[in-house]
Amino acid sequence: MASALETLCGQAFGAKKLHMLGIYMQRSWIVLFLCCFLLLPFYIFATPLLKLAGQPDDIAELTGLVAAWLIPLHFSFAFAFPVQRFLQSQLKTAIIAWVSLAAFFVHVFMSWLLVYVFNMGIIGLCVTLNVSWWILFFGEMAYVAWGGCPETWSGFSWQAFVGLWEFVKLSAASGVMLCLENWYYRILVLMVGGLENAAIAVDALSV
């Protein structure tokens, strides 16, 4: 859904309506944040939904556990992706690269610490992913808020709440388009889960 922001920011940047980029980003935050709540039941009830779909109990239960721990990651997407689109539309890709590099080092260190030192296993990996993605958002947002985009970011504005329905429709259309491109792989994973030795089959497909 954040891909809609890329289109709007690109148009505003080309038309020299620079102040609108920050407003568009805030609208995107609002819309995506609310959509995160709509999708939340799929994370909370992942285990019974997968069992209902015919997946083996052990895979369904482990997936439900992972899904619950990845809820912070789920919400981070609503903020991180719009900031990235906001910066990309202004050709400020260097800051994205530097923040991503910092998040990468933190990710590697935390993975080692939580998995090998504290033996947290897959939960440690989930915690690491949560932290890494929020670092991406806070790092890029710090650059924006502390003067990195003076022409396109002037702080939070009530204008972000104007025209939300139009933004929802555009974002939903973009989201559906990308979902259709990517869901075929998820459907394959579900189908493989019904085979014998499902754990090995799912692992092989993931690799």
UniProtKB/TrEMBL annotation:
TM regions (residue ranges): 29-50, 62-83, 95-116, 122-146
Any single Gene Ontology cellular-component annotation: membrane
Keywords annotated in UniProt: Membrane, Transmembrane, Transmembrane helix
Organism superkingdom: Eukaryota
Pfam family, any one: MatE
GO terms for MF: antiporter activity; xenobiotic transmembrane transporter activity
Keyword Membrane: yes
Keyword Transmembrane among UniProt keywords: yes
InterPro entries on file: MATE_fam
Protein family: Belongs to the multi antimicrobial extrusion (MATE) (TC 2.A.66.1) family.
UniProt protein name: Uncharacterized protein
Species: Chenopodium quinoa (Quinoa)
